[in-house]
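Translate sequence into structure tokens.
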Amino acid sequence: MRQVIAPDPRPHAEHADDPGSDTCAYVTARDGSRVAYEARGSGPCLVFTNGLATSSFYWRRLLPRFERRARLVTWDLKGHGRSEPARSPAATTVADSVDDLERIMDAVGAEKAVLLGFSFGCQIVLDAWRYLPERIAALIPILGTHGHPFRTLVHPRVGPLVHHMIRWIPDWLASLLLDLAGRSADLPGAFATSRRLGLLGPGLTLDDMRPFYDHIRRVDGPTWRAMALNAEAHSAEDLFAEITCPVLVVGGGRDAFTPPGASREMARRIRGAEELFLPDATHTGLLELPDVIGDRIACFLEAHRIL
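Result follows.
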């Protein structure tokens, strides 16, 4: 395994005493923070990696498609969901998240796994090829790009401004902005405006998105801010010519966060990659079109004799 990080012992999983889940467990990251994951089922291992400011609820409509056929593992980035905040900004790089993912694979006993990533999770699963290619059965980046996400966020002029703001705001303000973002859903007309702008799928209701708004208020601001800055500094583009495992890229034609050109370019440049392009999907495509996405993923995994 190629590594660019100092080696340290693989920690054992530590089960949570969270009364809301009897399947939640933790691994200890190399910075000492606890990273939460859940595992269920048996069979080939599928690991689902979230995006920034999201938790595993984005996968909830896709997971039932595979729960009787595979070992399903979901996990929370540092500072998200049940995971603890990073101990320092230095522990929020893409490589750190790959290391967290590997520790979780170790904890669940997965020698190899299919790595699925949503949004920022695409960068993590693609970069996993840099460090643990022999443990990857297939890669499925969904509604995300390979790197520098703020360059294409919403508009070529808007994304860089958002990045500039995140770069210069203090940590306390990052926390406040996340809290306000969560509260914004209940402002008159705010949710409808998000749908009109294409930030959310037109068929989604506030109840559909309530887990997101509730979650984002609890995201650790300093961790989120550092992770966002590291995401913008990162690219997995140099790996395109090296990736040899099966790859399925899922893109959305109405995705304001990852414009279709970004995902389509990734599908073209990774040798042998397959593509599922959904013309009407926004960045919430996993909630809008779970059956379409699930059926295509199942066919892809069956064709490559993984399921």
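Note: The longest helix spans residues 94-108.
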